[in-house]
Amino acid sequence: MTPSPCVALLMATYGRDDPKHLSEALDHLARQTYPHQRMRLLLAIDGPIPESNRQVIGAFQASSSIRTVATEIPRNGGLARALNAAATKLSGEDEYVLRVDADDLCHPDRVLLQVEQLQADVTVGILGSAIEEFESSGATLGVRTYPRRDQVRDYIVKASPLAHPTVCFRRNAWDALGGYRDVAFNEDLDMWFRALTQGIVIDNLAQPLLRYRISEGFYSRRSWSKAFAEYRCYTIGLYRLFGISWRLAVPAARLAIRLMPRAVARVIYSGRSWRRRMLNV
Fold first, then answer.
1. What DSSP designation does 248 have?
2. Half-sphere exposure of residue 45: CA atoms within 13 angstroms, side-chain side
């Protein structure tokens, strides 16, 4: 019987991660129905972390049959650098690279379903899924879906076509992209633009395979520097993908929304029908 393909789970954690949320994220990895002997967790520890977080990681290593390969980074350098550092531990056997975050909760069948889909459709290079958004209190906010392959190019004009923590890369797509670039606050969006420019097919499963935590900090991420970094990433990406077109006006509209006060941003984000009609942000 042919063994299941090897999967590398790519995660980064840093000093401000809540140990309870980290423990929950790792616990959901331990519940995966995919054969644990065919998975490895490539964990980047991005700078100093509290002892409580180390204890969480140690408990996972001691109890889980998923092997953990940790990469210690002396000073915090950001998500892109941390993920790339973890990815240096990829082996020649790893056929898929699956992103996991340190505070989101994977569906038990996430790895199994994504690998099965990529095995069934060899034309897809990057596969994401819908997400179920929830507050730290546990209250579910709803399900957010993402475009299928034939809608991705149009969708990226308005918003990211993938929920980053849901992504599974086919290994040759990961290698072709060369990992993440150090693009401030937008390493994932930059990668999706580069993938489409290179002709890598992006698709999403309609089933939500991740519970995505919406914390209070989610609404406070709209600083001037982050908003303008997003604007720059979109403008460059759209130009490289489509050239000069009306699409270049969309990032300016997004910028205006990003700079709104936190309370207004919360109302807009919660207003799904309004968001869908306007910019799907």
1. G
2. 15
d(CA 237, CA 231): 10
- Helix 79-87, helix 187-197: angle, nearest 10: 60
Query: What pLDDT does 96 receive?
Result: 98
- The Cα 173–Cα 126 span in angstroms is 7
Task: Please list the helix, strand and coil fractions of the chain in percent, rounded to the nearest 5, in that order.
Answer: 45, 25, 30
- Tokens at 158, concatenated: 């308005």
Say how many C-beta atoms besides its own lie within 10 A of residue 61's C-beta.
15
* Closest listed residue to residue 131, CA positions, set 204, 44, 191: 204
Q: Is 234 buried (19+), middle (13-18) or exposed (0-12) by CB count in 10 A? A: buried
All domains in the chain, ordered by first residue: 6-214 (3.90.550.10), 217-281 (no CATH)
Average pLDDT over the chain reads 91
Answer yes or no: are the C-beta atoms of 157 and 237 closer than 8 Å. no
Q: What is the pLDDT of residue 279?
A: 40
Q: Is the dihedral of CA 38, 207, 176, 227 positive or negative?
A: negative
Cα 242 from chain centre? 24
Written as one letter, the residue type at 180 is Y
The CA angle 200-205-209, to the nearest 5 degrees, is 120
